[in-house]
């Protein structure tokens, strides 16, 4: 490496030119006087704070210095008189407030040989202090807002439990929520596993602590370890200089919800097991263990026992997670909940979007007959879409996507295939029924009017129209269905 011509690597042999460069590039103003108070040096920063050039003050004593630069009090005479180090606040002619520190240097006889004065802008210090206080206030306010948002999120959790399955499940939650043990929630995608985990946390003794959630399937394998356990400064390329706190540590005193736990890489399952058993973990790139006290609730839509047999999930971790097992049944097996959820989401989105929609009985029946493969999440999204898109006050069959009519038609076809061979009388009755329904629908064009003409309920009229009339014809006459 090529050495500088002007700077020696031995600090005891720094040249005068180098020393002057160092002093002149100091942010603070620096003065030096001899033992009698005569100024022998001033750096360039004195111009900014005192409005003078160094050459204007060199060779004058401290009292002349005070008169020339118009600063008070005279700090040098005070130090020379007391012979002790002093720090005083001084106001200059330019209006600057300076914090002046006088440091006496003694000779072998104990006399003051030199007096070095360091002058720092108080306003800069005050601004820095004020900025620091504002930053602290902002951080505290943000922390309060995060806590408030978390509490609001937990308050907004509503579990609809009209079905016997859900009522039994909530009774189990009431019994175990206060007991600080781990829970594994099973259920298909969209059945409300996250909402149930929040409900458990809200009902537990940790309700005032944080609820930290992570979807193990949503984060790449190479990042999930640092998200869970955090990392130290310089742990890897691109890491933050100050490191990062992991979710396991953030959940201290609260609940850690590991959604889609079956997707957790095998190499990290051992670290989670250590957190459960020992309440300890090591951040990425770290050497010292950290402690955490969090309750773990996990959830999955996969069969973990099959994964254990395949070697992709640790058996010891499974039994640690599955102290209490809760299963959320799919929506197709909970028709009582489906009905309640339809109107729950309808009211929520009416309020959110300032609408006043209602759902026709025919539309409601089709929604109830649908299998909802996406479960509650699909139902919620569908109701929100209908509330936003439909302009009419009544949400009717014609407003539903085609998938609902196709599912309904397939169900009718399966029922017809499942029926035993019809007798001649049954066939004649079906033919008469078909003829009457088709003619009535062609004449009146709405399920309500067809129901009135045939003296049957409107929901039955709608089902017969779906059964015997061409669906495209139903759509073409859909305006009449609104009547």
UniProtKB/TrEMBL annotation:
Membrane spanning stretches: none
Gene3D superfamilies tied to this protein: 1.10.8.60, Homeodomain-like, P-loop containing nucleotide triphosphate hydrolases, PAS domain
Domain (PAS) ranges: 15-59
Molecular function via GO: ATP binding; DNA binding
Residue span, Sigma-54 factor interaction domain: 159-388
Residue ranges of coiled coil: 115-152
UniProt xrefs under Pfam families: AAA_lid_14, HTH_50, PAS, Sigma54_activat
InterPro entries: AAA+_ATPase, AAA_lid_NorR, HTH_TyrR, P-loop_NTPase, PAS, PAS-like_dom_sf, PAS_fold, Sigma_54_int
The keyword Transcription regulation is annotated on this UniProt entry: yes
SUPFAM superfamilies in the record: P-loop containing nucleoside triphosphate hydrolases, PYP-like sensor domain (PAS domain)
GO annotation terms (biological process): regulation of DNA-templated transcription
Keywords per UniProt: Aromatic hydrocarbons catabolism, ATP-binding, Coiled coil, DNA-binding, Nucleotide-binding, Transcription, Transcription regulation
PANTHER family: C4-DICARBOXYLATE TRANSPORT TRANSCRIPTIONAL REGULATORY PROTEIN DCTD, TRANSCRIPTIONAL REGULATORY PROTEIN
Protein name per Swiss-Prot or TrEMBL: HTH-type transcriptional regulatory protein TyrR
Lineage of the species this protein comes from: Bacteria, Bacillati, Bacillota, Negativicutes, Selenomonadales
């Amino acid at each position: 490496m090529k050495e500088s011509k002007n700077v020696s690597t031995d600090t005891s042999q720094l040249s005068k030119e180098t020393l002057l460069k160092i002093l002149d590039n100091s942010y603070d103003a620096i003065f030096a006087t001899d033992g009698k108070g005569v100024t022998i040096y001033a750096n360039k920063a004195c111009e900014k704070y005192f409005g003078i050039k160094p050459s204007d003050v060199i060779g004058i004593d401290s009292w002349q210095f005070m008169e020339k630069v118009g600063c008070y009090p005279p700090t040098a005479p005070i130090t020379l008189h007391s012979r002790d180090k002093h720090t005083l606040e001084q106001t200059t002619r330019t209006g600057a407030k300076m914090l002046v520190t006088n440091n006496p240097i003694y000779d072998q006889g104990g006399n003051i040989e030199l007096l070095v004065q360091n002058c720092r802008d108080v306003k800069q210090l005050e601004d820095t202090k004020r900025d620091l206080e504002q930053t602290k206030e902002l951080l505290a306010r943000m922390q309060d807002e995060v806590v408030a948002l978390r509490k609001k999120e937990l308050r907004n959790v509503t579990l609809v439990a009209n079905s016997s399955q859900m009522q039994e499940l909530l009774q189990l939650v009431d019994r175990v929520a206060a007991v600080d043990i781990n829970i594994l929630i099973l259920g298909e995608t969209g059945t409300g596993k996250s909402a149930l985990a929040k409900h458990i946390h809200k009902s537990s003794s940790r309700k005032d602590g944080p609820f930290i959630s992570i979807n193990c399937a949503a984060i790449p394998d190479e990042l999930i370890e640092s998200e869970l356990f955090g990392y130290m400064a310089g742990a890897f390329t691109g890491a933050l200089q100050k490191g990062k706190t992991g979710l396991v540590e953030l959940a201290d005193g609260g609940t850690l919800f590991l959604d889609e736990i079956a997707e957790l890489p095998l190499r990290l399952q051992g670290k989670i097991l250590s957190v459960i058993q020992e309440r300890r973990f090591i951040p990425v790139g770290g050497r010292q263990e950290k402690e955490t006290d969090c309750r773990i609730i996990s959830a999955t839509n996969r069969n973990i026992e099959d994964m254990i047999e395949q070697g992709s999930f640790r058996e010891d971790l499974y039994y640690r997670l599955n102290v209490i097992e809760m299963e959320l049944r799919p929506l197709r097996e909970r028709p009582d909940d489906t009905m309640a959820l339809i109107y729950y989401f309808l009211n929520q989105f009416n309020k959110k979007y300032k609408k006043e929609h209602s759902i026709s009985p025919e539309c409601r029946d089709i929604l109830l007959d649908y299998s909802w493969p996406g479960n509650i999440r699909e139902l919620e999204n569908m109701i929100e879409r209908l509330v936003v898109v439909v302009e009419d006050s009544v949400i009717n069959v014609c407003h539903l996507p085609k998938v609902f009519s196709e599912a309904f038609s397939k169900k009718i076809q399966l029922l017809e295939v499942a029926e035993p061979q019809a007798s001649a009388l049954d066939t004649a009755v079906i033919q008469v029924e078909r003829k009457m329904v088709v003619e009535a629908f062609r004449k009146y064009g709405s399920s309500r009017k067809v129901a009135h003409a045939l003296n049957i309920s409107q929901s039955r009229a709608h089902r017969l129209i779906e059964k015997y009339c061409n669906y495209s014809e139903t759509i073409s006459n859909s305006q009449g269905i609104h009547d």
